[in-house]
Each structure stands twice: as C-alpha cells, then as structure tokens.
Amino acid sequence: MLGPLAVHRNGRPVRLGPVQQQVVLAVLLLHGDRPLSVPAMIDAVWGENAPASAVNLVQRHVSGLRRVLEPDRAAHAATSRLAWTGSGYRLGVGDDVFDLARFEAAVRRARQARDAGDPKAAAGELRTALLLVRGPLCDGLSSPFLDAERERRAERVLGVLEDRIELDLAAGDAVAVVDELRRLVTEHPLRERWHELLMLALSRAGRRADALAAFQHARRLLRDELGVDPAAPLRQLHQSILAGETTGTEPPRTATAVPAQLPHALGDFVGREAELRQLDRLLDRDEAGVAAISGTAGVGKTTLAVTWAHRVRERFPEGQLYVNLRGFDPAGAPADPGKVIRGFLEALAVPPDRIGADPDAHAALYRSAVAGRRVLIVLDNALDADQVRPLLPGTPGCLVVVTSRNELLSLVALDGARPVHVDLMSPSQARDLIGRRLGRDRVHDEPAAVRQIIDACARLPLALSVVVARAAAHPQFPLSATAEELRRAQGSLDVFDAGDLVTNVRAVFACSYRALTAPAARLFRLLGLHPGPDISIAAAGGLAAVPAAAVRAQINELARAHLIAERAPGRFVLHDLLRAYAAELVAATESPDERRAAVRRSLDHYLHTAYAADRRLGEFRDDLIGLEPAVPGARTEQPADQQAALAWFAAEEPVLLASLRQAVHDGYDRHAWQLGWTLIPFLDRQGRAHDLAAAQELALAAAKRMTEPRGEAVTRVGLAVGYIRLGRYAEARQQLNIAYRTFENLGEHIGMGHARRSLAWVLDCEGEYHEALGYVQQALDHFRRGGHETGEARALNALGWFHSRLGEHEKALHYCRHALELQRRLGDRWDQADTLDSVGRAYFQLGRFDESADYYTEAIELYVEFGDRFDEGHALIALGDARAAAGDRVSAVAAWQRAAEVLEQLDAPAVAEARSRLLADRIGLLSQE
User: Fold this and answer.
1) Alpha-carbon distance 766 to 366, whole Å?
2) Residue 381 φ/ψ, nearest 5 degrees
3) Of 426, 542, 812, 877, which shows the fewest CB atoms inside 10 Å?
4) Which of the 8 DSSP states describes residue 491?
5) Which is nearest to 60 in space by CA: 89, 29, 93, 98?
6) What is the pTM of this model?
7) Backbone phi and psi for residue 249, each to the nearest 5 degrees, phi listed first
C-alpha cells in the first residue's frame, strides 16, 4: 500500500479488478481488523456523492474481492479473509505480509532501540521502514477517505524520516546527512524543522559559516512566502551556532519526560466508526488541532476519546496527557484550570524552580513546554469553553481532544475546534456490546430478551453497561429475567444503579440538570409530561406557557447541555431514560394543579392546531365538533396554506396519536374524541388504516365516557372509515347504523347523510350496488333537507359512481357532471378529485380512453395537492389502464410504476394490482420477442 496498491500470491501479482473494487480493498486494509459497516464503507468510498445503488455496489465489490483473494474457495463456503461480522466487513491480513504493518513494526523497534540508548540501531530500523515506501499511499486510487489517509500517511513518512535524521545526528553522522537535508529543504522549503536539522548538521560537520548562511536562507524564504520570521527553535539554534555551542554529539533535542497518562482503554469498545473517522481527520491538520466531543450523559464520550487516543498514541511519541476536568462530576467541583496546568508541567518534567508560584506565568510556561513537540492532550468531562481554553497549546504538533456534555460552540467558533457529536448507540451496536460482555451465545439464544433490554436502556451505553454487569454477575439467570425486571420497573431509574455515583444513571443525569438556569430546568421538568416522541418549539411554548423567543432560548440551553436533541430542524427529542428522569422531577417538584394545567395547555395546542390544519386541507369539511376556546398560554399555530398543513400533520402525526392516548388516560375525554376527529382525513388519505381505526376506537371510548351522543356518533362514522379500509365491513356497518340512529334522535340531517353515504361505501366494497344506490339517495335527501350543498355534491358523485358500477355509464356522467358543477361553484377542490375520478371511470367503461385518461390525470393532480396518497395510488392504476387501452404502453407503464411506488410506501394491498400489471406487461413483451 505504500505506493500503488499491489497484492501478491506465491510471489506473483494478483489482478485486483476494477478501480472502484481496489478502492474498497484499500479502505478495508486501512481499517485493519476493525469491522467496517456498509454505511461507513459508502462514506469512505464515495463521501457525499454516493450513488443510489451504493449498497449493491459495495456488495458486488466485496464478492469480487472474495473471488480475487480466495480463488480456491468453494462458491458458498465460509471465507477466512473477507468476512461479515454482523456489524461490518472485516478483512483478515497478517502483519507479516502487510507493508503498512511492517512499517509501523520497524518504527516501534526503532523507538525501543532509542530508549535503550542505541541511536545507530534505531536509525537502522527507521531505514528499514522507509525502504518499504514506494510512493504515495495507494497511488492512483482516489476516494474521500483514501485522499485524506494519503495526506496523513505522507506526513507520517516525513515524520519518520525526520526522526531517522535526528538519530543519525545523535550517532555522530552529521556529514552523511547534509546532502539529504539540502534536498529535503528544497522539496519542503516551509518546513522549519528541515532547516533546523540542516543548520545543525552543517555546524557539527565543521561548516559553521554554511550553517549561518542556511539560517539566512531560511529566514528569507519564510519572510517572502509567509511574511513571518523563523520560529523560536530556529532562532535559538542560530544563536547557539554563533556562540559555538552545537559541535557535540548529543541528541538534537534535550531529553524530556514522556508522560503516558491515558486511562485504561476498554477491550470491548464497539461501533462509533463515523466518530472515529472524524477524529482521524484531525491527524491530517498541520496546526494544533482540537476535537470537541459532545453528547448526553452516559453516551460514551470518554470511552470514545480514550479508545481513539490509545489507537493513535504512537503518532504522539513525546507524550499523552490526560485529565478529568470534573465539569459534571456527582462527587466534586469542576477542576481549576490553573491547577491542571501545574499538573501538566510536572508531568512534562519542568523543573520546580522554573514553575515557581505565579499562576499567571504557568499557562505561558505550559505552552512553551509543549512547543515543537508531538503531544496528545485529552481533556475529559469539561464544563465549558472557559475551563478548556487555558489548556490549549499554541503551536503545531499537539492535538487536543475535549469531551463535554455541553456542545462547546464557543470553542468551535473561536478556537477552530472540530465538533464530534456522540449519539445513542444503534440497535446493532447495542447488541454487539451485550454480546461482547455476556458472550455471543447468550445473545443468540435470547434475541427477544436482548431487544427488550436494549429498548429499556434507550440504547444509552451507561445504562446498558449497568444492566449487563448485573446479568454477568448471574450467568445462571436467563436474559429474559433481566428483561422482565426492567419491564416491571416501568420507567424507574432505580434499576440503573451499579452502586456508585459514577454508574448511577440518575446521579449522572442530575449533574447536567443542576447546571441549568431556572427557566430551562422548569421546561426540562415539564417535558416529562409531554407524551412524545418529539416536540416542536411552539408545542414546548404551549407546554410551559412562555413566549416563542423565551422557549427557544430555553430549548437551545437544553440542547447545548445534551438534555434534548434536535433530530430534525425545529424538532427536539429526549431519549426514554431522560424522559423518565424528567417525569420523576416534575412529579416531585410541580404541584398536581400545575401538572394538570401544563397537560391541558399541551392538549389544547395540539387539538386547536390540528383543527386549523384540517380546515386548511378541507375547508368544505363539515365542522362537527364545536371546538371550545384554548386556555391562555397554549400557543396554537395556524398553518399558512395546504402544504404547510400537510407538513404539520406529517411531522406531528406520532405526537398527535400519543396525545390522543394521553387524553384518554388522563381523563380529557372531550380533547380525545375531538382530536380523533381532526385526524380522520389525514390518516385516511395517507393510507394509515390501522392507526385510523385505533385512534377512533380510543376516541369512541372517551365520547362514551362523557355521555356525549353527538361526539359518539361523529366518532362512529370515523371509526367506520377505518374499518372499511381494513375490510372489516360488518363492523363498519354496525357503527354506521348506530351513528345514524343517534343523529336521527338528535334531528341532525347532515350527520344522517354522512352515515348513509358511508354505508353505501360499505355496500360498494361488498358488491351490493343496487342496495348502495338506495342509501346514497337517502343521503342526498338528508343533505338537501339540511341545506348542505357540499354533502349534496358528494352524494351526486356517489350516485354517478354506482350507476357506473351498474353499467349505466351515461347516467353516471349526468350525475357526476352535476356534482362537478356544484363543487366548482362552491370552490370545493377537495371533493372535485373524487368526482373527476368517477368521470374517468365512466369514460373508460364507454371506451373513450383518452378522455378517461384526461380526467384521471386531473384527479391525480388534486390528490397530490391535498396529500391524498391512498387515492393517488388507486387513480394511477386506473390511469395506466386507460393509457394502455389507448395504445400508449410507455405512459401506462410509467403510471403503474408510480402507483406501485406510492402504494408500496403505504403498504396498501392494491400494490399487488400495480405489480401484476407491470408483470403482465413484461410477459407480453417477452412473448412478442
């Protein structure tokens, strides 16, 4: 790999296949024995330009590499080289046949020889390493990951070359390296260390005048190119040469202590490939780099930082410093940066008489002590940027890794830190963690229990570690017993306690909570009352009864503290354990009246905004609920147009369903059945029949409980819609008959009309078209008696539909045209789509296929406009049929393909119809061929 990528078998080169396949091989090799997930592979090979077929391409290239690397392996035999581990692909290559591994092994031997006081042997080992370098890493191949690695490896090679020359000088071989250094100075004119070594070599070779001339040459170069003077080491060497102090054979740098303060690295570290790659990119930077690792409490920030630091510590041979800044420590106050600096100075073996007692001078002395050295500094558990900033070195060569529960945005904005966000583990990573600590067999034998444990722990590494430690202490107990214990805890954090403050999830969360301002702390507590799964700024304002600007500031404070996460623009989420902690706090802090008031404001926010959005989508939909005014502070929203209303419903749908369940559970029955009513059109037109039926069943229970006959009847009609979509026709019929009788008792003709028209729909599904026609006529009469022109137009369209079903297509067109005229006069575009669909069907049955297609096309445009995915899919099938009948096969296939895509997204049974048409078309083409 140290040059063009090449693989040899038995001394002969192996043909590696296409260039992209070689890139995949190179990426795998550079990841060593670490599994590489498919998403990580795609990111490494293509970056932001990944094609839609990237997953298939990765699989194809992996298959190709297996054939190349193991040509004698049977087709379906297990591979010993390139294997899938469950969390990613891993390529097994022995260090003895891998030039990168041999390079690093030689460098390690050189370090051992140097530490043993044998510079000649150390230099020889580095020569062995450098002989392996044939050119740039994987020369000729390119990808985002490879390009970055190539730059990093080039810098690594230069660093080794620099070390070898230093060792030659230490061994007294100054004359031998002069010509080489002149070449290096020419190739890297702005690399001050080469100028420094050249001056040192010339001086030790007895060429003092040439050494001084080399300094003047370096100074001119730096001034001309960069407008700066040489750095302190070069200037100090110049002064030493003038004073005649550099003729000995001592090592070129004063021996200093090499601190190795990194804590123990976990042997069962899993996942975090993307975060590790982000940290790896810091190694490519020449300046002093800073990584700001942030994430919620217990998410594994320290583990990530320490693991990565151990992996790259050899890149920092002059020391690794570590300190726990105790920014969020349940057992102590945050560390004083001044005291931390003094500890670092002692670790760097700065003499006590130089340290002195003046704290103000310590920071400058610290920066001087690490200047020109390659030192890795890990600042763990930082409180904020102010605590970190005094500990940052000021010169290239050093790299700082900071971990904090705060985002440290100031450090990113002002100090150029690279942000690295650590999120909850993925389910596969959590499963891998459990497997590594408990054994793969236990995980394999009880997959359901493992899933339950992962869910109960919210995929939070600290919680998983506590629970897994308890399971490991009782290997004779099945994991199902652990899962059952977590289930019985019902969200209590008591089960996530391993016996000390550091491993007590509640105590760990409390450190973050105590650092909040009072308004943000109150909002966090109230979020424990929100049903989830996420919340918008407006909804949070309603929950807390605070203005938009204030709640935004509070949300931002929670987000910076990683007590809430912004999963999508403007939408924030707490993971389940933080939600449980917030629920504990709100129950202990707020009074029952305050809690009920907050829940009422939240429900009012969702009910009134859902009502407004529903009116935007269908202004001609009957208002059957009689909404009461929202309580003060509820912060309701008014979507600006149909698209905004659709977007609001799409974003809030899970929250609306959760709010409906909360309303039923907490006894807000009016909110429950009215919220259910607002959801009917959106859920129906999105093809969410199961959710629609479940929501209306809850709403019906609430309406019954409050003895609200009208609400009960309205809800039964909505429930029937869900049952019809699910094919539960007998139950739908029962609900509609009860609703009709209730409306009849109330004397509400409009409600009676809705019940009868929906009953006709049931009969349509059962093929009883004559009977259905009678119920539609009843519906028409009721709507006319109620003076309801919108309902009248719907009933006229239904009459046309059923006449077409009965083969009376001209009569059908008569009723549908009448319906269209009425709808257009009213401006009712919502219902026009259904009528246009009916006209398209009638024309198709009359053999007028082009006209049929035109009406279907117009209907589809309206369905798309109003977000009616369900009817859009069905109309697309019919449009394809009309195009096919008209002889336009290409347009027909396009319509069926769109229908299949739409209906597949909805998991609608009608997707089979679209696919069968596409299949029949392909079979027909094959037959013709």
Assistant:
1) 84
2) 60, 50
3) 426
4) T
5) 89
6) 0.64
7) -110, 20
**pLDDT beyond 60 at 804:** yes
Phi-psi domain of 138 (left: phi exceeds 0; alpha: psi -120 through 50; beta: other): left
Angle at the Cα of 466 (from 465 to 472), degrees rounded to 5? 80
All structural domains of the chain with their residue ranges: 273-421, 427-505, 506-617, 719-928
| Contact indicator for 285, 394 with CB cutoff of 8 Å | no
| pLDDT for residue 589 is more than 60 | yes
The mean pLDDT value for 758-782 works out to 95
- Amino acid occupying residue 271: G
- Within 10 A of 736 (CB to CB), how many other CB atoms are there? 28
Question: In Å, how far from its chain's centre is CA 426?
Answer: 10
pLDDT at 637: 92
Same fold for the pair 506-617 and 719-928:
no
- Residues 6+ positions from 205 with CB-CB distance below 8 Å: 174, 175, 178
CA 629 to chain CA mean position, Å: 39
Assigned token pair, 847: 């053999």
Cβ(411)–Cβ(426) under 8 Å? no
Tens of pLDDT, residue by residue over 466-483, are 888 888 888 888 899 889
Helices H / strands E in the chain, number of each: 42, 12
Dihedral sign from CA coordinates of 687, 693, 696, 698: negative
pLDDT band at 285 (very low <50, low <70, confident <90, very high): low
| Yes or no: domain 719-928 corresponds to CATH 1.25.40.10 | yes
Residue 892 binned pLDDT confidence (cut-offs 50, 70, 90): very high
Per-residue pLDDT averaged across 574-596, rounded? 92
- In this predicted structure, the answer to whether residue 194 has a pLDDT above a threshold of 50 is yes
d(CA 422, CA 2): 33
Strand pairing category for 535-536 and 82-84: unpaired
Q: In the CATH hierarchy, which top-level class contains the domain 506-617? A: mainly alpha
**656 and 532 in contact (C-beta within 8 Å)?**
no
Residue bearing tokens 């009788």: 741
Rg (CA), the chain: 36
Only one residue has tokens 């392909």, namely 922
Residue 401 per-residue DSSP state: E
